[in-house]
Design brief:
8 helices
C-alpha cells in the first residue's frame, strides 16, 4: 500500500513539475516577444528601440511648424550634384566643331571627363553652375574661337535618397523623386511589420555637427485612419524614417487610444533649425591667386531662427481674460 502511494505521489510531482515548466516557458516566450522571421524561430529577437534623446526631441518638436507636408508640398531646392550622378551634356550649336562625351558619370573624385577640354570638378555644384563651368573650360581651351553653349541635364540622381529603417518589411535606401511623403516612404518599404509600434515612428533629418537635431514625430494612426496630414511630412533628401518595435507594455495596454508623440507635452522646450546645411561638398577655388584644383569649404549659411515650441494644451489660454469689474458698494458690505 505504501509503495502504491509513493508511486502516485511521484507521478503527481512529475506532472506538477512538467506543468510548471510549460507555464514558465510560455511566460518567457511571451515576454521576450517570440519571433519567426525568415523561417527561423527565436526567443530573443532583435528589437529596434527609440533612443531616449530622440524621443525627448520628438516630444519637444512643434508639429505645426512651417514644414512642407501632404496638401502643402513645395518644389525641392536646387539639387547639388554628387559622385555617382549621371549627367547628359549637349552642345546647343550644331555648326560648331566642339564635341563632348554625352553621358557623364561623376567620378568618386567629383570630376567629369571633357576629353581635351579638361576634367573639371562638378561635385557640390548645381546644374546651372555646371553649365557655366563647362562653358568656361571650353573657352580656356579655345581662346581664339567662340565657345558654344552647353546644355546639362541630370538623368540619374544616385545621391537623392531617403532611408526607411526599423520595423518595416523592406528596410533600406530608396531613390527620391521629390513628391514623397512619410506615408509614401513607408509604403515603398513594404509597410509596417507585425512587430511595429504605430506610436513609435519618427522622421530624422541630417544636421551638421554641433547644431540642434531635427526629429519630427509621426502620428501614423491619425494619418491612415483620420486623413490627418499634420505629420505626413514631405520627404527631403537624406531623411531617415525609423519605426520602433512595439514593447510589451504597448501590447498589454491595447485599450489606450492615442500616441505619446501626438498627445504628450514638452517638459523642456528646445528650438531646432528647420533646414540643415545644403552643400555636401567643398567648392573648387576660383578666386585669383589660388592654386588650381585646391578645394575650400564654403562659409556656413546662417541657420533659420529656432522653431517656436507651443504647448497645444495651453494655446486656448494664450490671451489673458479681461479683469472683472469691481463689485458695487452694497455687495461689499
Amino acid at each position: 500500500m505504501g509503495a502504491v502511494m509513493k508511486s502516485r505521489v511521484g507521478r503527481l510531482a512529475a506532472r506538477t513539475a512538467w506543468l510548471r515548466l510549460c507555464v514558465l516557458s510560455t511566460v518567457l516566450w511571451a515576454a521576450s516577444g517570440c519571433s519567426a522571421t525568415g523561417g527561423s524561430l527565436t526567443l530573443c529577437p532583435k528589437e529596434d528601440k527609440l533612443l531616449r534623446s530622440a524621443e525627448q526631441v520628438a516630444l519637444c518638436t512643434n508639429r505645426y511648424a512651417g514644414l512642407p507636408r501632404e496638401l502643402q508640398k513645395v518644389p525641392l531646392e536646387a539639387y547639388y550634384v554628387q559622385p555617382g550622378d549621371v549627367l547628359l551634356l549637349e552642345v546647343t550649336d550644331l555648326d560648331t566643331d566642339v564635341r563632348l562625351p554625352i553621358d557623364q558619370t561623376v567620378m568618386p573624385d567629383g570630376t567629369i571627363d571633357l576629353a581635351e577640354y579638361g576634367r573639371p570638378v562638378v561635385a557640390g555644384l548645381t546644374i546651372d553652375e555646371i553649365e557655366e563651368l563647362v562653358h568656361a573650360s571650353i573657352e580656356n581651351a579655345l581662346p581664339d574661337a567662340e565657345a558654344p553653349q552647353v546644355n546639362v541635364r541630370l538623368t540619374v540622381a544616385e545621391s537623392a535618397v531617403f532611408y526607411v529603417l526599423g520595423e518595416v518589411n523592406a528596410p533600406g535606401a530608396y531613390p527620391l523623386i521629390g513628391r514623397e511623403t512619410v506615408l509614401d516612404a513607408l509604403m515603398t518599404a513594404g509597410g509596417l511589420s507585425d512587430r511595429a509600434s504605430e506610436c513609435g515612428i519618427i522622421l530624422s533629418r541630417p544636421t551638421p555637427q554641433g547644431s540642434c537635431r531635427i526629429v519630427l514625430p509621426v502620428c501614423y494612426p491619425q494619418i491612415v485612419q483620420l486623413g490627418d496630414a499634420t505629420t505626413n511630412y514631405q520627404i527631403q533628401p537624406g531623411d531617415r524614417i525609423f519605426v520602433s518595435t512595439r514593447s510589451m507594455c504597448e501590447q498589454l495596454m491595447f485599450w489606450q487610444d492615442g500616441c505619446k508623440f501626438c498627445s504628450g507635452e514638452c517638459a523642456q522646450p528646445c528650438g531646432s533649425p528647420l533646414t540643415p546645411a545644403r552643400r555636401p561638398f567643398a567648392l573648387p577655388i576660383t578666386e585669383p591667386g589660388e592654386r588650381p584644383g585646391e578645394l575650400r569649404v564654403p562659409a556656413a549659411e546662417p541657420s533659420a531662427p529656432p522653431a517656436t515650441i507651443l504647448n497645444l494644451r495651453e494655446t486656448a489660454t494664450l490671451e489673458e481674460p479681461e479683469p472683472a469689474p469691481p463689485a458695487p458698494e452694497r455687495l461689499r458690505r
